[in-house]
Amino acid sequence: MPELSLKKVTYQYKNANRNALNDVSCDFSMGMVTAIAGPSGSGKTTLLSVIAGLDTPTSGQVIFEGKDVSQLNLDHYRKESVSLIFQGFHLFALLSALENVCFPLELKKVSLKEAGTKAAELLESVGIGEDKYNRYPANLSGGEQQRVAIARALATGACIILADEPTGNLDMENGKMVMDILRRLAHEQGYTVIIVTHNPEIVAASDVVYQIVEGVLQQEESGCDELKV
Questions:
Q1: How large is the C-alpha radius of gyration of the chain?
Q2: Going by fewer Cβ within 10 Å, which terminus of the chain is more open, N or C?
Q3: Whether the model pTM is above 0.85
């Protein structure tokens, strides 16, 4: 059974004369990287928001582990099951790299000592060494900030990672590094990774590819190549 499914999902913004999503049905599986590709305004980010439980479909269902998300505790679903990574990083400017990753752990009432230890492990897992722990986001490169953002996403304990143009603000080398981390999280640790992108190299490096145009989703073939630099 897929970890996450969309069943005939339609979404219409208030006072809009067209649907942002049209009868979307698709499956997302554990251990797979799925790319949702399409031009600006095609519905990619709206689809991600619906999956994250930030927006409720006008009609249709989002099914997580066999249950309709609308019937779940949405606060719990958003905190425990899905985690978002953004193009703009969205780190807390006044918290260090380590403190940024500690933040979701502390929200879960993990002790400060345990949170620090776990945060350090997560930062190391994405290639951020101890010399960067106490740096603020402004003193990190874009690639480093995005890797801290990934570590923070992992700290939530969520099994689904939603990435909105995660390499959009990065150069090619750092983009490859971030994509390699996301692939490893899916293939080696079993995360469900969903990326919205217009980057053809990200598409080529994904296991499953959907194309969305004017809210209509279709599956395409993917070569699942390594991201080239």
A1: 17
A2: N
A3: yes
